[in-house]
């Protein structure tokens, strides 16, 4: 059963004091919603403070990135073990990391291996740019990111990995993909690629999210699609009422067991 999953990526927003205030609003609102795995991913500086506020709740904590080495002279980096002290999840391969900080499919692969070795659950982001989308390269790009990013390791537990399909042209632009279009990429590209890497059963069981200008008023469009299991939310997760509406929409989604993979 693929349990609905909603994660909020705060990006480079909120000081520690601001994070405490936001979480103090989020916790009672999100605790009212059941049947959804809920994750918030604040900046590194706020992880410790937020972790304390989430103790005893069903809301999980995630980091926005990490390095693949366990320790060493890597100024400014955060190791998997440091993340794992506080978090269950870690976002890897986000398009902003690829665009602004030179991350590649190969370096994302190294981070995924390191995350799994530290018992972290990676939320692996894939998606095409506007130029790639307009030139009809969506399938080629997303397939490559899955195949290289997830290469060379065995997966036995589907809940140890989450995929987020985030078309780059929809992130922070207000121009979301359609539910039908996003579902088609998941059904025809992502799950078949997962089947090639792992097995049909695992490809069916791994949760795949949509991300890119998800808001309270369009979340249901994605959550009613059979292959989309939730969302990786950007700007809307910084507003308690908006993020709560998105999580509520996910709670109304029926967990899926059927597969389009033959």
Quickly describe the structure:
It contains eleven helices and eight strands. The protein has 262 residues and is an alpha/beta fold.
Q: What is the straight-line distance between the termini?
A: 18 Å
CATH T-level topology: TIM Barrel
Helix content: 40-55%
Decide which structural class fits the backbone: alpha/beta
List keywords for this structure.
262 residues; globular; single chain; 41% helix; alpha/beta; disordered C terminus; TIM Barrel
Question: Please, could you describe this protein's structure?
Answer:
The structure is a single chain. With 262 residues, this protein is α/β, with parallel strands linked by helices. It has a single domain, classed as TIM Barrel. It has 11 helices and 8 strands. The protein has helices at 16-31, 47-54, 80-84, 95-101, 105-117, 130-134, 138-149, 179-197, 200-205, 219-223, 240-251, and strands at residues 5-9, 37-41, 59-63, 89-92, 121-126, 162-165, 207-210, 230-233. It has an 8-stranded parallel β-sheet with strand order 7-6-5-4-3-2-1-8.
Write the layout of secondary structure elements.
Blueprint: E1 5-9, H1 16-31, E2 37-41, H2 47-54, E3 59-63, H3 80-84, E4 89-92, H4 95-101, H5 105-117, E5 121-126, H6 130-134, H7 138-149, E6 162-165, H8 179-197, H9 200-205, E7 207-210, H10 219-223, E8 230-233, H11 240-251
Parallel strand pairs: 1-2, 1-8, 2-3, 3-4, 4-5, 5-6, 6-7
């Amino acid at each position: 059963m693929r349990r609905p999953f909603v994660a909020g990526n705060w990006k480079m927003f909120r000081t520690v004091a601001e994070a405490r205030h936001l979480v103090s609003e989020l916790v009672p609102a999100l605790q009212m919603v059941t049947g959804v795995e809920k994750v918030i991913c604040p900046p590194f500086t706020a992880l410790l403070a937020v972790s304390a506020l989430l103790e005893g709740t069903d809301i999980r904590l995630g980091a926005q990135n990490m390095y693949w080495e366990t320790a060493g002279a890597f100024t400014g980096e955060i190791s998997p073990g440091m993340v794992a002290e506080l978090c269950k999840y870690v976002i890897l391969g986000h398009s902003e990391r690829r665009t602004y900080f030179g991350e590649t499919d190969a370096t994302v692969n190294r981070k995924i291996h390191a995350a799994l070795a530290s018992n972290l659950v990676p939320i692996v982001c894939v998606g095409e740019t506007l130029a790639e989308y307009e030139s009809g390269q969506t399938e080629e790009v997303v397939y490559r990111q899955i195949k290289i990013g997830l290469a060379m390791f065995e997966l036995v537990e589907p809940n140890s990995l989450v995929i987020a399909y985030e078309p780059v042209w929809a992130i922070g632009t207000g121009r979301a993909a359609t539910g039908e279009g996003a579902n088609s990429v998941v059904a025809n590209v992502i799950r078949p690629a997962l089947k090639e890497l792992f097995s049909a059963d695992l490809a069916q069981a791994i949760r795949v999210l949509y991300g890119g200008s998800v808001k309270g008023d369009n979340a249901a469009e994605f959550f009613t699609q059979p292959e989309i299991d939730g969302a990786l939310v950007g700007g809307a997760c910084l507003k308690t009422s908006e993020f709560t509406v998105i999580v509520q929409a996910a709670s109304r989604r029926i967990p899926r067991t059927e597969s389009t993979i033959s």
